[in-house]
């Protein structure tokens, strides 16, 4: 018996015309009519339906395979499907099984596109890592905007390093290098998850490291310590909005980040114990964007309050004691804006790009504490809320250091810093090491509360 493939090379194929196919119907008194296009391809027409059928012989038996309905499958498409099926028969394969396998593969690929796997990864991370709603939404927005249009519909197993690099290059062309770096991290994590769930064998995203240029690090503006007395004097002389002045002074006394103190609530403070507990996440306040933000590194952290800071908060309580936010702004029910402190500094005559900005307070504080030679590096880092990467050989030691709270030292450190700022209010700069050698016997610590 000649195969369909050999038949398809004869002059007996492609007998039908598009018009014949369109007008095909059973003869009068018949329920069905078969029109032979050659190469064992038939159009089976009934009164209500027309279907393409391929007939073939395999392993000594005749078989039939339905290729689809007309007009959904045109004459040209039916002939292409016939040729593919005939080729499979010539190779000793059953085209029905091959087609079913292709459908299963397509269904599997559709369920394992980059977008499907990325969304699955995002859901898992949200549940497992306890991301805040804001943080989770930012990540999903980024990958939706910049990764899904390029990679979303691609089967995860088909993606090579060059494919994953393409959306990063598009983002880098917009000069959004920081965003490109974050997207690379997301891609690496998504592809790692694909490996872990058995979709792929190896992670092609590992080779993206270094493929996109990094932006040169920029440092936040901070005054040299020799101008500390000038800074303190200017803040003390500010005659503008009282809450703005107290917020600026509070930021200098504590070294807290903007989002950490702007969204602070009175319930976080224990003025008797001299502590402020920054939660890893706060309860959202309706209508106040980002009000659920807590400690930046998403872990509870205790800030010890000096006597000066407690006095400042007591003064502030007389103004905002009934407000939701400790640092409520001029709009009732809303905190001061993220630019309040920097705006205050500009009113005091500083360029927040070149001279000093809110974040620069932290720089000056850390520099002074280090130069005093009174406090350990770990206690300073613990207070400031840094989670530095362990140097080689320090991994185990780092575990124990993270457990250590340096309670008494941190409390003494914050009181020293507040007293040092007071010492610099007389208009003449005192170096940290010089102040450290002065008599500090009058420093009375508040009760220690565990971090």
From TrEMBL:
Q: Which SUPFAM superfamilies match?
A: DNA breaking-rejoining enzymes (SSF56349)
Q: Where is the Tyr recombinase domain?
A: 218-414
Read off the InterPro entries from this record. Answer: DNA_brk_join_enz, Integrase-like_cat_sf, Integrase_catalytic, Integrase_DNA-bd_sf, Integrase_DNA_bind_dom, Integrase_recombinase_N, Phage_int_M, Phage_Integrase
Biological processes annotated in GO? DNA integration; DNA recombination
Query: From what superkingdom does this record's organism come?
Result: Bacteria
> Species name for this entry?
Chitinibacter mangrovi
User: What Pfam families does the entry give?
Assistant: Arm-DNA-bind_3, Phage_int_M, Phage_integrase
The protein depicted here goes by the name: Integrase arm-type DNA-binding domain-containing protein
Q: Which GO terms describe its molecular function?
A: DNA binding
Family as reported in the entry's similarity comment: Belongs to the 'phage' integrase family.
Q: Which UniProt keywords apply?
A: DNA integration, DNA recombination, DNA-binding
